[in-house]
From TrEMBL:
Keyword Protein biosynthesis part of the UniProt annotation: no
Residue ranges of domain Aspartyl/asparaginy/proline hydroxylase in the record: 165-329
Keywords, ordered alphabetically: Oxidoreductase, Signal
GO molecular function: oxidoreductase activity
InterPro entries: Asp/Arg/Pro-Hydrxlase, Asp/Asn_beta-hydroxylase
The UniProt record lists the keyword Metal-binding: no
Protein name, per record: Aspartyl/asparaginyl beta-hydroxylase-domain containing protein
Region (Disordered): 366-396
Organism annotation: Nitzschia inconspicua
Cellular component GO terms held in the UniProt record: membrane
Annotated Pfam families: Asp_Arg_Hydrox
Family: Belongs to the aspartyl/asparaginyl beta-hydroxylase family.
Residues in the signal sequence: 1-25
Length: 396
């Protein structure tokens, strides 16, 4: 009997020492605690997650290695916070799809695929041509090309574009007047991240960010704000800003990844050095994929930033443009609503507006373990000699 008790005590000690590890790891700007055993991995997070602008850790599943029955396997594992996020997303998408099916006969199958890819359940998308580098935040089936002709060839897809060019002088004049009054303090870089990606020569004045208008900035540019509102541009979840490129600087080649958002640059101030007849200058350019184009005052350049793109200002003057991010025209109304919901919810999660809640999947798994024998309780009972059966079953 003594030998049996000693053996069981040794087994218990060995179990506690070898199978439980607690680690602290950096995860997108916050700390998480990972509790792992030889049979499973459970990741718990804090209620707030900081997410890099270029790749959302809420949207993208992290690959975690864990062991099962002694053999290693690489799986796409979601943190509990991510699981909570996606459970809320799916519930919201159900409501959106139900509404738009009844109203317009539209489904959101492509957004369901978007979710699967963002969670790591299906492979990453392939680029459509050289220089096209879409990310995991991808909507299938959308036309991809470096530049779009919003006022001529593709004009019917962008009914607001020609009207914007016709009234561009309103924006140019208001901006120039403001620049003369407050040139020193007008521009400031948005963040360290932006400096790293965009270069120290790039800075911006944000009128809108992540779907929310900056009331203070809009008051500084009231005519611009009102014009943009009146044109009913289908602005996406990224933003609207005036952007400055300092002399002798440029944005290094990079892809923004998301293929469902297009970007227009309205020329505000472009150098007159080496100016061509059309008002452009070869000293100020943007390259998207393998195509290079130049800005003109009062004219739009529209591009797909899921292609690798870069800029340069080789003149001695600042270059200013108004940047507008808007939905890809081939998205349906239902798909736009679904994407708006997803990114709005992500922003709420990131800002801590949504408290932590244990995901339904975890609760169901815990319940299944309890029903199957009590998890650690069942193991402990067996280890100490209680057996795995119920004594009441032996009454006969």
């Amino acid at each position: 009997m003594l030998v049996v008790l000693l053996f069981r005590s040794w087994c218990l000690l060995l179990f506690l020492l070898t199978t439980t590890t607690i680690t602290r790891q950096d995860f997108g700007g916050c700390c998480c605690h990972a509790f792992s055993t030889t049979t499973t991995t459970i990741i718990d997070t804090t209620s707030r997650i900081s997410v890099l602008p270029s790749s959302s850790s809420l949207l993208l599943a992290k690959k975690q290695r864990f062991t099962s029955n002694g053999s290693g396997s690489l799986l796409h594992a979601l943190t509990e916070r991510q699981m909570q996020f996606w459970e809320d997303v799916e519930e919201g998408l159900d409501d959106i799809e139900s509404f738009y099916r009844k109203k317009k006969g539209q489904d959101i199958d492509r957004i369901r695929q978007f979710g699967k890819r963002a969670r790591g359940e299906i492979p990453l998308p392939l680029g459509s041509s050289d220089g096209h580098e879409p990310s995991e935040e991808h909507v299938d089936g959308l036309t991809a090309k470096p530049f779009w002709d919003t006022t001529k060839e593709d004009a019917e897809l962008f009914p607001w574009a020609a009207k914007l060019e016709e009234q561009a002088s309103v924006i140019v004049e208001e901006f120039e007047a403001k620049l003369q009054r407050d040139q020193e303090k007008l521009f400031s870089a948005d963040s360290v991240w932006q400096n790293q990606v965009m270069g120290n020569g790039w800075s911006a004045i944000r009128l809108q960010r992540l779907g929310t208008w900056n009331s203070e900035t809009c008051q500084e540019f009231p005519r611009t704000y009102q014009l943009l509102k009146d044109l009913n541009i289908p602005l996406a979840v990224r933003g609207v800003c005036f952007a400055k490129q300092a002399p002798g600087s440029g944005v290094q080649p990079h892809s923004d990844g998301r293929n469902f958002i297009l970007t227009s640059h309205l020329g505000i101030q472009v150098t007159k050095e080496n100016q061509e007849e059309d008002g452009s200058s070869p000293l100020c350019w943007i390259q998207v994929g393998n195509e290079r184009r130049t800005w003109r005052v009062g004219k739009l350049l529209t591009l797909d930033t899921s292609f690798v793109h870069s800029t340069s200002n080789d003149s001695t003057e600042d270059r200013h443009v108004l940047i507008l991010d808007f939905w890809h025209p081939e998205l349906t109304e239902a798909e736009r609503a679904a994407l708006t919901f997803i990114y709005d919810l992500r922003n709420k999660f990131e800002s801590g507006q949504v408290p932590f809640r244990k995901p339904k999947q975890i609760l169901e798994e815990e319940q299944q373990k309890q029903n199957a024998g009590g998890g650690f309780g069942g193991f402990w009972k067996t280890l100490l000699g209680g057996g795995g059966s119920n004594d009441d079953d032996d009454d006969e």
